[in-house]
Known about the structure:
Blueprint: H1 9-19, E1 24-32, E2 37-46, H2 55-64, H3 68-85, E3 93-98, H4 100-103, H5 109-121, E4 124-129, H6 137-149, E5 153-159, H7 169-172, E6 176-179, H8 181-185, H9 191-207, E7 210-213, H10 219-227, E8 232-233, H11 269-273, E9 280-282, H12 284-300, E10 305-310, H13 318-329, E11 332-338, E12 350-353, E13 363-370, E14 374-382, E15 385-391, H14 394-405
Helix pairs in contact: 2-3, 3-5
Amino acid sequence: MVQEDVRPALDVDFDAVLAGRLIQPVFQPVVALADERPVGFEALARGPEGPFREAAALFAAATRAGRAAELDWMCASAAGRHFRTAELPEELALFVNLNPDTLVLDPPDEVIKEYTGLTQERPVVLEITEQSVMREPARLLEAVLDARRRTARIALDDVGAEPGSLAAMPLINPDIIKLDRSIIQSRANSWAVSQVVNAVLDEANRRGAQILAEGIETREHVAVARSLGATLGQGWLFGRPGPLPPKDVRCSEHELARVKSRRVSRTTPFEVLAPTTDVHPTTDDLFENMAEHIEYQAKQTSSPAILTVNVGDGGFDDEARLRHTYLTNRGIDVFVLGTNLPHDLGGRIRGIPLLETDPLVHERTVLFVGSRYGSAAFARRHGDTLDAGTCYDPEHVIEATLTLVNRLPA
């Protein structure tokens, strides 16, 4: 007997939306605050008239149906086609939003073809939402690097909506940091808002990134955005989502930033950090003291951060588990690498088992990366001793952390 389809009628209707490719892009201007002229347009999705007209309803239905990535790619493809055929000044950029869970998947051929052509003709800014960047960091970082190789810029979207994700900002290394509308429209001078703004300003100043303020609806919002260091803006004050403008639109004279790419090597933290500082022979006990000093810094921080610990072929005992559980309870992401480690080390500590052939087996490392700082203790086994050193240069510590990203599990 054929089993009847008992899905809700709305979900059946949603299948028809995808089957008929009934997705239409609309575009909202992104302007330079200095002259309030567009530097580009962000593509947003609209469905047919009815319950799936708005993007939120579309993606909610796609998530229920397990087809969110399919919808994401369909929206990106439609936006790219419309933008390529529009007679706009070639310096105007297309901002396109992709969920990190979609970005780590292999795109369909039509999307590759569309964006290969588009990036050769116009600037493209790939927007990544900050809330889930740590879900599959290895594959996400590889996708980001691939996008950069295709000349796309990277924007980190909705920064401030979830302050705990700020720690991942240095790893993504965005060209553009988009402050969430809640930051611009907040009337409260809260500690959380200050924490976000200080971290974003520090990253922008250090790397040369631009800050884009979302949700600008009034002149007061413009003043707030400028006071927070924003040079780009987006919101109803400058234009609501709609069709692309005519070809004679006056675009801004201000260019989009492009930060310097970080080196992502397939080596180890020791090989990255040893040339940058003094390295001396030490004992296991003395190295433990060095590592504890880095962990003490993690205990003192009140900001989002990432602690990565490599125990090599050593053990991970209950005392270490208690220390790191305490850190995860303070909002710090903790990763522990080592041989014979389970993926679940208790609490929210993520274990990464190492192969016996991995050179990390012979190293010990503690890397602490925050949105505004970085410190490390590192060592490599040499006979009965360890060659060890410390580093407090954030850029070098971030580069060392990136050598481990490809080992992180989903």
